[in-house]
Design goal:
The protein is of the alpha/beta class. It contains 9 helices and 8 strands. It has one domain: Alpha-Beta Barrel (TIM Barrel). Strands 7-6-5-4-3-2-1-8 form an 8-stranded parallel sheet.
């Protein structure tokens, strides 16, 4: 096997091992985080069987989408969304994982093309109250979720978070645990909520143990980004 196949199989095996240890019977989806990676790298991973790819920057993603128009790829925006990019996201993406304020909801719904399925949306939560992170505060989540669910061309699917990169795994696990509690509350009030996106290359096993249904992995699949990326 080449590096791509070896890395992909290793990550899948690690996800399955984490599910087994956590005694999970539900599926955990792998989202390949492909920011700064060339379209050829995404194509190679798609040929290994990977379906969902997450991009941080709209313009970079649109270029890759043009190059990979013939590939069966599900496109997720996982980076912060600026209001002037709502049309592009509504038109060209399948998922938005980083919705964190209500003012973006109306244009996203308005620009979603007729005939396309509703845009799948995750509300991003700033679970550790970091100044440098996007995301709504936990006490703002209920109102944001209600507004997403009410939009005609959006589909509320769940929550996303990027906990603080604490060196102590226990602190990150606690953040994942708090996200799981928010997720369960949301599921109790909104039908169709089924996705809790949390955990990255260095901590996705912890996230799976605490209930993640989707993990976002870049480095373990593609290798470390170059210093100037």
């Amino acid at each position: 096997m080449n590096f791509c196949e070896t890395a992909y199989r290793s990550v899948i095996d690690r996800i399955e091992a984490a599910r087994h240890i956590a005694e999970r019977t539900d599926a955990v989806t792998l989202l390949a985080v492909s920011k700064t990676k060339p379209a050829a790298a995404l194509r190679a991973l798609a040929q290994c069987g990977q379906h969902a790819f997450g991009e941080n920057y709209v313009q970079e993603a649109l270029g890759k989408q043009r190059e990979l128009a013939d590939a069966a790829i599900e496109w997720h925006l996982i980076g912060p969304l600026q209001s002037n990019k709502c049309r592009e996201v509504a038109t060209h993406f399948d998922w938005l994982q980083s919705l964190d304020r209500t003012k973006l909801i109306e244009p996203l719904s308005r620009f979603r093309p007729a005939g396309r399925a509703a845009l799948n949306v995750l509300a991003q939560v700033n679970i550790d109250d970091e100044d440098s992170k996007s995301g709504c505060a936990p006490d703002e989540l209920a109102a944001l979720a209600d507004a997403i669910a009410a939009a005609p061309n959006l589909r509320l699917r769940g929550l996303m978070a990027i906990p603080a990169p604490a060196p102590d795994p226990g602190r990150r696990r606690e953040a994942f645990r708090r996200m799981r509690a928010l997720f369960e509350t949301l599921r109790a009030t909104h039908a169709g909520v089924d996705t809790l996106s949390m955990g990255m290359s260095d901590d996705f096993a912890l996230a799976i143990a605490e209930g993640a249904t989707m993990v976002r992995v870049g480095t373990a699949l593609f290798g470390a980004r170059s210093r100037d990326s």
